[in-house]
Amino acid sequence: MELKGIHHVSALTAKAFENVDFYTNTLGMRMVKKTVNQDNPSFYHLFYADEQGSPGTELTFFDIPMLAKNHEGTNSISGISLRVADDQALTYWKDRFEELNVKHGGISECAGHQTLPFEDFEGQRLSLISDEQNKGVSAGIPWNKSPVPPDKGIKGLGPVKLTVQHAEATNGVLTGQLGFRKKGQYASTIEGQPDILVFETGEGGNGAEIHVEERKDLPPERQGRGGVHHVAFRVETEAELRQWIQKIQDAKFQNSGFVDRYYFRSFYFKEPNGILFELATDGPGFDTDEEVEHLGEKLALPPFLEPRRAEIEAKLKPLNIRD
């Protein structure tokens, strides 16, 4: 068994309408599924991805109105990166962020790649990463109706950074239970802190890396809007997922057991520092209930929630004119 890379990252927002505007209009990603939190269908669950909604390109948001602000700290998913084609694309994005008043840093090198850090309107910690020097898991195809030119568009998820109090425990889960390999390390930008370790799985590269930062000088993060809920890793099939479930359960981790999310099958567990990991299958995919050309245009509900559609829609605030 081998995990293929990063499947998706799920974050938190308190403003669904503004979230849609930022991720589709500012970042030019495609909203491939507009659905609800299956565990609490009073709230939206929004999925942004590439043209096809491919695994490894999905950034999702749970909408929780009135959610308090995220307070950064340890035992958290502290950074999400998004892949672009090359170094030149970063220059385009820097200019775009300045034009649109998006808070951002400067272009710099990180672990052998050029990167551009920025934040969304709720302080979500993001960065763009260039694939120019990348080898490994293939990226997706940018949305063909994006306001961003195709050669500059976002192609999928890059490395995800974890900040923990006890790195050895998290590293042990990545390499021992999940089969990641240590790839290297790079210096922290915080003086006096240990190097950040890089782990990869599958074919490796930007679409399959986890970066682990140890910080003993920070309190645990208090999760809120602008924070990240969980990171998911790619599994080829449901049969393989069930083997992973048995392996993690045998190791006595707190876990969810098998979960059918309709668009994929999954399994959740918490690693020793309390970060929520998910393993998710590549299929069936977002075109299970919508044609690829019309992904994300209407509210999609899994079959078990479809009988409650009228009740659910009555509680949701419309996001755009297609609602």
TrEMBL record:
Residues 5-131, 156-282 form the VOC domain. Signal peptide: none annotated. It comes from the Bacteria. PANTHER family: RING-CLEAVING DIOXYGENASE MHQA-RELATED (PTHR36110:SF4), RING-CLEAVING DIOXYGENASE MHQE-RELATED (PTHR36110). This is Glyoxalase family protein. It comes from Virgibacillus alimentarius. The lineage of its organism: Bacteria, Bacillati, Bacillota, Bacilli, Bacillales.
